[in-house]
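---------- Forwarded message ----------

FYI, see the Glycolipid-binding domain-containing protein record below. Original note from H. follows.
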Amino acid sequence: MPRGRYSLHDPHDHAPLGEEHFQCAPGPSGWRYVAQRTSPSGDHTGSVDLTLDELGRPLRVELHASSWQVKGAALDGVTWVRTDPTGEHATEGNVRAHSFTGASPAFLVAVSRLLRLEPGSGAVRVRLVAFTDPALAPLTLDQSWALLDRTGHATDTGPLVVDEYQVSELDTGEIRTVHIAGDVVLAAPGIELEHLESPPSSFAA
């Protein structure tokens, strides 16, 4: 069960945004990721709880940030309920999209698991609902994902397979490179893996 810590920063000006302390593991139903988020000063700022089914679809997502809360799942596309800080008002949303995304590295793993790309297979377009900080406001966006390379690296605990993805934001044209090993993001714009207590888990084919 991988357990570790990501540092998060603004990918444009590199301003620190805080840290995400996480643990994740595959299970009978698919994969689960839980994390607590902290500010640069160490204050608790929110949490992430994401469960995928064996096909990579979001069975359950629960996000907390700045007293806002979102609960969602794959249902007629993706469906969610967003609750305001007072707890008095809740708004429902539904979009014909493939999955969710957001600031957490967990969502990069989730999309890669959903698409299951092979090197050289070409780019695939995916529609996602992003929940943006700090109020978890929903935003529908389209991305293009391509698996550029898959390489094996020898480590003390055995071979480590690293996938290199090119992720393009179709509305802005911005292109990012994301490196993922199993269920851990090794590097991506705005994301640094600072500590990992055990090797990444491998997904079954």
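H. also flagged this: The helical segments are 106-115.
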